[in-house]
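I'll show a sample.
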Amino acid sequence: MKKGRIIKALVSVMALSFLIAGCGTPGESSKSSSTASESTTASSTTAAVDQSWDKVKEKGELVLGLDESFPPMGFRDEDNNIVGYDIDLAKEVAARLGVKLTLQH
């Protein structure tokens, strides 16, 4: 009887330690070892390279890649039109940006 309680306690402690170990912020350990200037350089390099919005604006078109077999996010209706939450959201984004929406599947 006592042996069973000890095993249950050990299993509980192990499970708890695994749970606690997985609760950190992603990249937390690498952040602590890097310097502040390295972090700033990496983030400003990423921002400088990303020209997605410029490309969309130049082309006047937002291309949405989607999976039409994933209701309610994207699927074909009875008239064979692609519909769903992702499409509705993309239509609104394109309208607010003032660009054409192109669905690509």
